[in-house]
Amino acid sequence: MSTRPAETVRTPSSAPVQEPSSPGTGRRPAHRGTLVLLALGALLALLALAVVHIGQGTAAVGPDALWHAVTTLWTGNGSTDRADAVLVASRLPRLAAGLVVGCTLGAAGAVLQSVSRNVLASPDTLAVNAGAYLAVVAVAAFGVTLPAFPAGGTALVGGLLAAAIVLGLARTGTGSTRLVLAGSALTLGFSGLSQMLLLLRTQQTSGLYAWGNGSLAQIGMQTIGPLTPVALVALLGLIALGRRLDILGLGDDEAQVVGVNPRLTRTVAVVLAVVLSAVSVTVAGPIGFVGLCAPAIVRLIGARVPALLRHRVFIPASALAGVFVVLGADVLLRALFGAQAGTAVPTGIVTSFFGAVVLVFLAYRSRDGGSTRPDAAFARLRGRRAFVLTLAVTAVALVAAVVAATLVGDTTLLLGDVGNWLTGRSGRLVTFVLDTRVPRIAAALLAGAALATAGTVVQAVSRNPLAEPGILGVVGGAGVGAVITLTAVPLASFWLISGSALAGAAAATALVFGLAARHGLEQNRLVLIGIGVSAGAAALVSLLIVLTDPNNGTKALVWLSGSTYGRTFPEVLPVLGALVVCLPVLAVLRRDLDIIGLDGDTPRLLGIRLGTTRLALLGVSVVLTAAAVAAVGVIGFVGLVAPHAARALVGQRHARVLPVAALMGALLVVVADMVGRTVIAPAQIPVGVVTAVIGAPYFGWLLWRARGER
After folding, report:
1. CB-CB contact of 482 with 627 (8 Å)
2. Domain 91-365 class?
């Protein structure tokens, strides 16, 4: 009997699978039988999980009550029984939300990973969820209440916009980490805008913050019912595209040969995936990392069952795995913290934490396409005159910003008022204003200088210009340490909080650099692991805030947003002390920084003890970061923006970059703090929100400048 040649199809895991097309081989029925058994086992396990999920709660529910409630919901007849009412109004809608959210995010993540050819892609890492959430918050901020379909359309527009921006910035291929970097930066920027709207329009956006962490809590089926058919149509559309996606995995040229339009196929697939993400966000808010975990689970099983990796099976299998992730996280949440606490803690916190672990694991095992150097365009030699001029202009701009920040705010002052305050002759109002305003300006100035200096050091040590304390998880680790103290010890002293922040920063640094060092610190893997650790730290912080007393949670939230409010001169001393100690050390090691930033061999040839020097420099960056975070809270992007701007102006020599970067970091935070407390005075926008809104576009611009590199 003659048979046709085996057909090679590129699977979502980028591994070719040989599938014989002749039934005489017997392998296709075997594959089908295995898939059928897997499907039956998964459905039985899902049924058991659903029964456990419905049974959890503050009120006991038996099988009879469950059956009665299901028939009541199906027939539409009213019920006066309390257990039936709980099931119909709360638990069954919560289960339905878990099913819808798991299916949509799992399928969307699978398709986005296939289209981008990047196993780290998902609705989270591509900022789709953040864009959809921002669109919903923006509409609510203007007092507009939308029903299910228009709300889903609004989320769709935001998600499509985010996906277009990220894929446009990361269009250079599959081996680069640019996709995740662009998505993470855009997520931070969109999150900053969302927080700003939540602060500016508090009454109109009431309740959206908790919803922003992703919660399955529902009241009835008003939202789930209308949007479920939309999700089903989009899911069927993606399954119908499965054969084209298989062919697309072979490469664009091969796809065109067999009549598949790569651009059209990608566009349709991305739009349908974003539709699924928009449905999920509309139903339950942005539940994190489900779209990353679910396809990863299917790939692990697919290593033994290759037929599972064809897109017509891979997409529904990822959807089913997404349901297991979401419902499993919800069951685990209520099992660990009890039924009452389970209703208050958003499910998205649990999925984000486990998703962060998966992201770190995938980043650790991924192949690196080489160093990403978006500052290559800035690597020019600069003369001494350019350095002196830049230093002078930056110093003058910083002085002008400090003066302006001292004079403006909810109360406008004159220079004469400041002079009287300095000589002790000012009135009561001026004294009160300046006694509260000047310490916070000092905190912003010193914290900005510390974060910029730490970012410069981290970039040199890791030989990665996209690295900075915020992206590498150092700031997140400091945040976890400080929030644990804030929530566990409400009356903790500032020094205890500072020590906790230092311990958290050191732990995060050891974790990130310890994992990345096994493959070389210069690789992009360092940044990806740092992003994962940051996400995990954010999930832990959100969990601590939700579980703690509301008053402690409010303090922690304000601190996490990056705020100089209420700072005093004694609280600024740790940052000043860190700068006084660390800057001379960096001045001595400035040439070592230059050499370490080149490659891994040159320092050894010149007699530099690479391990010891790196450890010392990382210790300096940790101390600076922890001191800044303890003083003003979590502020992102300063350690990225300031060093890049300094290198663009004065070149690569750290003897020049360090002082200019420190001045620029101080200038950025002082200006951001001034803007935050004057735009909506007497209300205030946290300085961390302002720097996120400023830093995200700059980060995207850096990636755009480097879009031609691998």
Report:
1. no
2. mainly alpha
